[in-house]
Specification:
The protein is about 20% helix and about 35% strand. By secondary structure, the chain is an alpha+beta fold. The strands form 2 sheets. Strands 1, 2, 3, 4, 9, 10, 11 and 12 form an 8-stranded antiparallel sheet that branches. A 4-stranded antiparallel sheet has the order 7-6-5-8, with no helix packed on it. β5 (about 95-100) and β6 (about 100-105) form a beta hairpin. The longest helix has about 30 residues, at about 5-35.
């Protein structure tokens, strides 16, 4: 056997090993840094439509907590087998109230260009507790959210929604 064929065989073996390492690393990185979710229901319309695929990442919350306006993916309170997506309206120490369908945080009316409709009825005021969030769906009258089941423990937030990737015609950053 010549030295050239031995070198070729070693390169092939090294390339295969490198490819396996890259695939394993890529799968691991994707499962830790990004995850896809399918949108189910009408609670986030018109921004998120049923059947669209949402990309989210926990990375921003490794360094800080969710902020007002963030779209978060979280484990459903009381239904640990379900994952929900909602918008953060109130953070710890905020006072949240809804009057005539408009949301007020700390006495200031929120500018909400993303919402589909104003909510019917009034709610609150409620003070957001330490370690919790007040979340609402963008389609207020079709959303099961903090008005129904209370404040969301920050510990249940899995990730921040960053964009839509499916179908391709819906691709955009959030």
């Amino acid at each position: 056997m010549t030295s050239i064929s031995i070198r070729t065989r070693r390169r092939r073996t090294q390339t295969i090993k490198l490819g396996i390492v890259a695939v394993v690393f890529g799968i691991g990185l994707t499962s830790v840094c990004a995850q896809g979710f399918s949108v189910s229901g009408k609670c986030m319309e018109p921004n998120l439509q049923e059947g669209e695929r949402l990309l989210s990442t926990p990375v921003p919350y490794w360094f800080s907590t969710p902020g007002r306006g963030d779209v978060v993916v979280f484990e459903s309170p009381g239904l640990h087998s379900q994952t929900f997506v909602k918008r953060v309206i109130g953070i710890p120490n905020d006072e949240v109230r809804i009057r005539a369908g408009n949301v007020y945080v700390n006495g200031n009316k929120c500018d909400e260009p993303y919402r589909k409709n104003i909510a019917t009825g009034d709610y609150g005021p409620v003070n957001v507790e330490k370690g919790k969030l007040f979340v609402l769906g963008d389609n207020r009258d079709k959303s099961n959210d903090s008005r129904t089941w209370g404040q969301l423990p920050i510990s249940q937030v899995k990730s921040k929604a960053v964009g839509l990737y499916w179908p391709p015609s819906s691709w955009r950053l959030l």
